Amino acid sequence: MPGILGEVRALVTPAMDEALSRLSPEIRKVIDYHMGWRDADGRPVQRRGSKSVRPALAFLSARAGGGEFQGAVSGALAVEFLNNWAFLIDDVMDRDRFRRQRETAWVVFGEGQAICAGTALLTLAQQVLLESDSPTRLKALSLTMDTSARMLAGQTLDMTFERRFDYTVEESMTMTRSKTASLMRCATSIGAVLVGAEDKTVDALAEFGQCLGVAFQARDDMLGIWGTPDQTGGRPRGFDVKARKGTLPIALALNDEAHGSALREIFALPGELSQAHVERATELIVATGGREWTEDLARRMVAQATAAVEGLALPDDIRAHFGQLAAMGLPDDVAR
């Protein structure tokens, strides 16, 4: 896996720099900081941005569709821009103060600057595809536009959970499928679209990404409650509980007959939850089986993702890479 991620970065980083060079210096400064390339004063730092998982999936899907990595560069850029658009906007809406173990862009530059930077990335995601020389670039563009619409729908649903605690597990799953899994679905199919793969191949890769996206979110939901600061970019243990987020283990606990009412009472308390309330709420989530259910969901989704591409005629190295990326959705590293 380190080999392919290095190859991904070698192709994506210069192309990303070229695309971002079109932006105004003010917007570029915010994006460079958010990506982990520069500090708040614009001084270069050792690049420590994303793990490049989604661009890697775009490249793998191109190979799975019978093409080469180079044919998926515009798609890899598009999904990386969509991913960081979502991060920038979500951080503002969720009032998240830390990402990648330093303050988020809105904290440093203000909400307006962060929103403008995110919108610029959304625009670039579409622009790089329009400028692609692929005959199927409009199909890829349609995919990204559908994906951004799904992500917005998921974010909107997520925001409604902040005002009520009667949402169901299925509503939380709908939010997960829309907000997170749709982008993974785009990443695992856009490369194949750009190289002109058959529909059955594109569909299988899309299913892989949809399932893997749910697994990744289930794992993140566990980290949001039981993860350590070094795993969560500086967020304290129990962050999602304190923020009363509508994540999968919390949704399951809120709907539990034995403990749901007690958890709703804690969440309904005015103001910020105390550490004692966070710990008690976490105990209630554990008592309902929320942790075990979410962990099992992640494992089942990884298995379904793997099964989705079993019938494809893939080169051995590409199949192995898909398997390694799928394994990243397993919650084995979440502390007990």
Topology (elements, then pairings):
Layout: H1 2-20, H2 25-35, H3 53-64, H4 73-94, E1 98-99, E2 102-103, H5 105-109, H6 111-130, H7 137-160, H8 169-194, H9 199-226, H10 239-242, H11 248-254, H12 260-267, H13 275-287, H14 290-308, H15 316-327
Antiparallel strand pairs: 1-2
Helix pairs in contact: 1-3, 1-4, 2-6, 3-4, 3-8, 3-15, 4-6, 4-7, 4-8, 6-7, 7-8, 8-9, 9-14, 11-13, 11-14, 12-13, 14-15
Concise structural overview:
The chain has 336 residues and is mainly α. The protein is built from 15 helices and two strands. It has one domain (2-327): Farnesyl Diphosphate Synthase (Orthogonal Bundle), CATH 1.10.600.
Overview of this structure, please?
The radius of gyration is 20 Å and the shape is globular. The chain contains 15 helices and two strands. The chain has a two-stranded antiparallel ribbon. It has helices at residues 2-20, 25-35, 53-64, 73-94, 105-109, 111-130, 137-160, 169-194, 199-226, 239-242, 248-254, 260-267, 275-287, 290-308, 316-327; strands at residues 98-99, 102-103. A hairpin with a 2-residue loop joins β1 and β2 (102-103). The protein is mostly helical. The protein has one domain (2-327): Farnesyl Diphosphate Synthase, CATH 1.10.600.10.
Low-confidence stretches: none
In CATH terms, what is the fold-level topology?
Farnesyl Diphosphate Synthase
**How many discrete domains?**
1
Shape by Cα distribution: globular
Structural class: mainly alpha
**What helical percentage do the residues reach?**
55-70%
Beginning-to-end CA distance, first to last residue: 27 Å
